[in-house]
DNA sequence: ATAATTGCAAATTTTTTGCAGGTTC
DNA sequence: GAACCTGCAAAAAATTTGCAATTAT
């Protein structure tokens, strides 16, 4: 997976097997929390230590390789930073996070006129119920 | 402060001095994190225990009296739920959070057409630098 | 060779819990 | 009086740290 290794270019971070595995896991799921990374990888990579996952998520975030998503009611999730700008759709029932591409010019326009505050970027989180969970709810 | 007591109407929650003090503190600051609530109140209310703050924030959130804000890089903050709908401006330097009133019809329109996903509400967080911090940065 | 990284165990920090004694409605 | 709360201390969970051995560049 050269694609994964490339994510580290321009950083002083080394391409260790553990680190690459963590990045691959994040890329695979799109959005995933620390525990799931650890549990999933432990299966195929038994020596992987929890501390390594902690340290890596911290370091990778610090160097802008990944982003941390702070979402209501669920554990923080991580995603690869090098992606087209997007926002997030969160299912309040199952916690699944999906990328969503929104035109946010209206918001950007409004933030331009804020007195004294320089806005760098805006994040939008949309909360609702995904189709899978909607189906299940009908069943009850 | 009858205004504070009224926030508990319709819930089975009792108006204890501790709870009212916590709510008053949240209302006073607009947005405040758990530690600050505890530290601030400890001064005027020495017997206030940290566990009580934890339990109250949990219960008050559970009953929709307050909302928890999950913000990038800073500790979760709490705000009174019974407010006009608004969004948030976050200073990346000092962490101060300010309410902002945005017209989000453009986003709402877009989420209506999402296949299979029912969106209940969208949250917008705008990150940047506040005027105070901008001033200080100039100084350096 | 150098600087970075890992895994482990210990240390910290954060959050939750159980319960006895009080309080609110 | 019933249900709910508080404060305390203990327990559990989450996160960080130090360090010796190993690995990537």
Offer a quick outline of the entry:
Two copies of one chain form a homodimer. Chain A has 140 residues and is α+β, with helices and mostly antiparallel strands.
Description:
The structure is a homodimer of 140-residue chains. Chain A is α+β, with helices and mostly antiparallel strands. Chain A folds into two domains: 1-82, Winged helix-like DNA-binding domain superfamily/Winged helix DNA-binding domain (Arc Repressor Mutant, subunit A); 84-140, Ferric-uptake regulator, C-terminal dimerisarion domain (Dna Ligase, domain 1), CATH 3.30.1490.190. The first copy, chain A, has helices spanning 2-6, 17-29, 34-44, 50-62, 105-112, 131-139, and strands at residues 32-33, 66-69, 77-80, 87-91, 97-100, 118-129. In chain A, the strands form two sheets. In chain A, strands 1-3-2 form a three-stranded antiparallel β-sheet. Chain A has a three-stranded mixed β-sheet with strand order 5-4-6. In chain A, strand 4 and strand 5 (97-100) form a beta hairpin. The longest helix of chain A has 13 residues, at 17-29. The termini of chain A are far apart. The mean pLDDT of chain A is 96. Chain A binds chain B through residues 68, 70-72, 89, 91-92, 98, 100, 102-107, 110-111, 114-131, 134, and chain B through 68, 70-72, 89, 91-92, 98, 100, 102-107, 110-111, 114-131, 134. Chain A binds a DNA duplex (25 and 25 nucleotides) through helix 2 and helix 4.
